[in-house]
Design brief:
This protein is mainly alpha-helical. It contains 12 helices and no strands. α1 runs parallel beside α11, α3 packs across α8 and α5 packs antiparallel against α10.
Length: 284
Amino acid sequence: MHLSIILWGMTGVLGRGIQLQEGLLVWYRMLITVVSMFLFIVFTRQSLKVGATDLLKLIGIGTLLMIHWLFFYGSIKYSNVSITLTMLASQGLFTALMEPLVTKKKFRWDELLFSITAMVGIWMIFQVEEMYTKGIILGLLASFVGAFFNILNKDVVGKHSPVVVSFYEIAAGLVMLTLFMPFYIAYFHPVHLIPSHMDWVLLLVLAIFCTHITLVLSLAALRELSAFTLNLSINLEPVYGIALAFMIYQENKQLHKGFFIGAAIIMLSVLLETYFQSRKTGEE
């Protein structure tokens, strides 16, 4: 799980470095990932057979994943890596609220408490970084959609290989985005339709290492963890991503002090959740 989070932390940095707009960036990312996963499945001789019901679920989940990525990279383009990654911490709140409704899981007040703690940090960031309002909103939308992705995935990852699940989801998202792409191009008029040489290098790293490998690792972890625990643990992603953004893009010089206070509150929620989860496991 933590290895996948470290790799996920690189996605924002790579996304900012790629000159394509978010729609084309996601389309190329999905295209390369689908090819990579298909070759891996063929090489390892895994079966692609899934039931019709599960296939329909995977198509729906893959569409959610594609929308999540569009919001995520849109947030980076309208703000920066640090703001976007910090907003992802709200996945814990959305999961705590939505998972009991979707899966009939018993509602737990401690999960909501930790999530609200994270939201306090997000509110502080919103107050001091008003110039990034559009990016913050897109980041929160990415978190909301991402929470549903993990909740719904919990139902299918126990039945099939993680790489097969990921392949169908990415392929479904690619098909849906391809159908939408002519409208996207007509409305947004992107400057670049074809990646530059450097963009291709960054896209290959993003698709193979930060998508193919991370999705398989996270889905494998989801088999053993609740969706809430996984989402709240993903709050560590901003730590790695923001550190990289500070080193590469000097984003620390662009942010107010309130951002760091808010980010510290979010990280505190992660530490508290980890502590109480370890105590609960020890008691059991």
